[in-house]
Specification:
Structural class: alpha+beta
Distance between the termini: 29 Å
Radius of gyration: 26 Å
Order of helices and strands: HHHHHHEHHHHEEHHEEEHHHE
């Protein structure tokens, strides 16, 4: 009872077959390691204080020699944090791997983690898709998970990925038949149209703006152009052809990095470039459409994950078969983690 409180809790609350075997071993004077093996709990839980014991210690937890040696320095300081910490470690190892579980153990010690484990599970899902080319969902990850990342950075990259999935889930907008000017150079600047999908997501990350979420806007008639100097983006411009009649676009917005104000030189170049668009000889109204969900696209994204894990939609994996419920739930769960506060040292 003194040397392994978690084992006592597991004997009291675990599955009957395990608890009977563990009791017999204890009465026979077996080692604590053998008792932990019978209970199917990791031996490193021996360091768990009695006041921290709860249902979370019965979750599937990693127990390799390497993990056990490294996790010792990553355990919570406060008993009240053990439940959420164990749940994070369990999800990390089941969805991703032991290395990711160790990373979560570290980051949950460093940060006050708001909300439940669903946000962490979504981050683990993003990490899993980023480690290999699973399918089109992997192609929407511009920057994958790395152990040196912070929890807040991983959460923000996960949000970018979740929003970017709209480019896979919805039909690309149909061509409007209106061509841009032939010359896309104005002085030192070059105007490059960003295509549907990954180019918009990558530009959004590079320029620290929300272009990764622009699937709906593009479906409604917006076009996005990157303004570059010597090949380096200096600003992004949104123009709209929706509701136009003679092919002359409307300038919706123009911003530099982080949605800051673009320089006067960029604005002058943009106006000069827009002046090159010619009136069409006949009226050709461009009607803005609405995003159309591709049939079966949501399930196609997650099939590699479900097959790899031998499971179907649902918990503890944070993906359901219903797009409308699942994507919004994941985004809402991950968003607070992007602003998680650091714990005070000591």
């Amino acid at each position: 009872m003194v040397s392994f409180p978690a084992a006592i809790f597991a004997i009291a609350h675990g599955r009957r077959r395990r608890t009977v075997d563990a009791r017999c071993l204890a009465i026979a004077g077996a080692s604590l390691r053998d008792i932990a093996l019978a209970l199917e709990i990791p031996f490193w839980l021996r360091r768990m204080p009695p006041e921290a014991c709860g249902p979370a210690l019965l979750l599937p937890l990693p127990d390799s020699a390497d993990f056990s040696a490294r996790v010792a320095n990553l355990m919570p300081r406060s008993a009240v944090d053990w439940g959420g910490w164990l749940e994070a470690v369990s999800l990390g190892s089941r969805i991703m791997d032991e290395a990711f579980a160790l990373w979560l153990a570290r980051e949950c010690n460093r940060h006050i983690v708001p909300g439940g484990a669903q946000g962490l599970a979504a981050i683990a899902l993003w990490a899993w898709y980023g480690t290999a080319e699973r399918n089109a969902a992997s192609s929407m990850i511009v920057r994958g998970w790395e152990p040196r990342m912070s929890l807040t950075q991983a959460a923000r990259d996960t949000l970018t990925w979740l929003h970017a999935l709209d480019y896979l889930l919805f039909e690309a907008p149909e061509a409007d038949g209106i061509a841009p000017p032939g010359d896309n150079h104005v002085g030192d600047f070059t105007f490059v149209e960003l295509e549907w999908g990954l180019p918009l997501v990558a530009e959004g990350m590079r320029m620290r703006n929300c272009l990764g979420t622009y699937a709906a806007y593009c479906s409604r008639g917006s076009r996005i152009w990157s303004i570059r100097r010597d090949g380096v983006p200096v600003a992004d411009m949104e123009i709209s052809l929706s509701r136009t009649r003679r092919g002359v676009p409307r300038l919706e917005q123009l911003h530099a990095v982080g949605n800051s104000d673009a320089s006067d030189a960029v604005w002058a170049a943009a106006y000069q470039w827009l002046s090159r668009w010619r009136l069409l000889a006949e009226e050709r109204p461009v009607a803005g459409g609405e995003p159309r969900l591709r049939r079966g696209a949501w399930l196609e994204l997650w099939l590699p994950f479900w097959r790899a894990k031998g499971s179907g939609p649902g918990l503890p994996m944070p993906v359901t078969s219903d797009y409308e419920q699942s994507v919004e739930h994941m985004i809402d769960a991950v968003r607070p983690l992007g602003w998680a506060t650091r714990r005070r040292s000591g």
